Q: What sequence folds into this?
């Protein structure tokens, strides 16, 4: 059996937020697609590399649901000096999405009343996330992006960038994403949400300053991890290996211990309300049509059960129908959805050719 890269099981260490380099921009009041106005919005961001004189070398990186602005951390195999997104040449900008919990305005942020928004935080959309990012780029004096990119939820944001601001983007690289969630993808998210909603400590979303529904959030993360990887990945890593001395209802199999560990660690860096807000936003997203716009590159992964390749192919065909130059490549890998974070060789080859072409 193939040996799996250990990094697939080191998710918490790999995605730890880097608060020291984080900057916060105040972008003012933001009118949401719902018609509500979110006041005094802040956006957390980090820049890796340097903007050139005319600010034409900016690349915006949009993160997956549990990510943050530290894109050079969670996408460390693709972002950095002499890597696919070469920070010797480009200024790579990561932002924390609207509704998040790593510096950008979200449910745990203070409302105008001086207390956390909690249950009163308004519903947001992927379009709202993109509008907040665009406002940030306005403040940074960046009129056009050399590229916008992202995977999973980040891929939806990148796609929305090309729909909402087609003339402001030169290229878009979208990986392991879709134009709209299927019933199965919504089902995964709803099971994860219900784990939070049925935790008595959720308190209808107004659990601050307490820890809140940490048990439900941990179970949500376990559900996520099952969908992120493949059967072969779990078999290669754990098989049916058992712990030495199982005790009663305590985890007996190594894979059980792994899921419990990942779930518990996740509660230390993520907010349950943000999970609810962001997962509802991506479930509600639907891109049925695109205008003429930038060059597009899509990649998907042969063993990705969460975002199967036919969804990337549908987005590719939507781009072609809009008259865009577009390509879609299926990358062969046995390790599932998280391959978009860790597969480097083929992505690097494709991205370098895409950015230089």
A:
């Amino acid at each position: 059996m193939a040996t799996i890269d250990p990094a697939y099981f080191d998710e918490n260490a790999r995605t730890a937020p880097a608060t020291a380099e984080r900057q916060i921009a105040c972008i003012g009041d933001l009118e949401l697609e719902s018609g509500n106005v979110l006041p005094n919005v802040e956006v957390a961001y980090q820049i890796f590399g340097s903007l050139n004189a005319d600010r034409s070398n900016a690349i915006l990186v949009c993160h997956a649901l549990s990510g943050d602005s530290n894109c050079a951390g969670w996408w460390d195999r693709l972002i950095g000096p002499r890597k696919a997104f070469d920070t010797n040449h480009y200024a790579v900008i990561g932002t924390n999405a609207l509704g998040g919990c790593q510096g950008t305005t979200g449910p745990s942020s203070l409302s105008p009343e001086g207390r956390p928004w909690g249950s009163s935080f308004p519903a947001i959309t992927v379009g709202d996330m993109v509008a907040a990012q665009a406002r940030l780029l306005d403040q940074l004096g960046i009129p056009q992006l050399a590229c916008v990119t992202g995977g999973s939820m980040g891929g939806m944001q990148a796609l929305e960038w090309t729909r909402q601001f087609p003339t402001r983007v030169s290229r878009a690289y979208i990986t392991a994403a879709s134009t709209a969630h299927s019933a199965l993808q919504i089902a995964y998210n709803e099971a994860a949400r219900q784990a939070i909603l049925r935790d008595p400590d959720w308190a209808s979303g107004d659990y601050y300053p307490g820890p809140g529904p940490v048990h439900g959030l941990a179970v949500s993360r376990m559900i996520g991890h099952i969908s992120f990887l493949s059967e072969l990945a779990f078999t290669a890593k754990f098989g049916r290996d058992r712990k030495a001395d199982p005790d009663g209802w305590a985890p007996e199999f190594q894979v059980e211990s792994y899921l419990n560990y990942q779930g518990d660690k996740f509660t230390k860096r993520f907010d349950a309300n943000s999970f609810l807000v962001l997962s509802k936003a991506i479930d509600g997203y639907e891109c049925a049509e695109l205008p003429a716009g930038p060059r597009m590159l899509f990649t998907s992964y042969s063993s990705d059960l969460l975002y199967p390749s036919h969804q990337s192919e549908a987005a590719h065909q939507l781009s072609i129908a809009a008259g865009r130059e577009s390509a879609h490549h299926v990358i062969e890998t046995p390790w599932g959805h998280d391959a978009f974070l860790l597969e480097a060789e083929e992505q690097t080859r494709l991205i370098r050719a895409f950015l230089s072409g």
Observations:
- The mean pLDDT is 95.
- The domain at 6-182+287-356 is CATH 3.40.50.1820 (Rossmann fold).
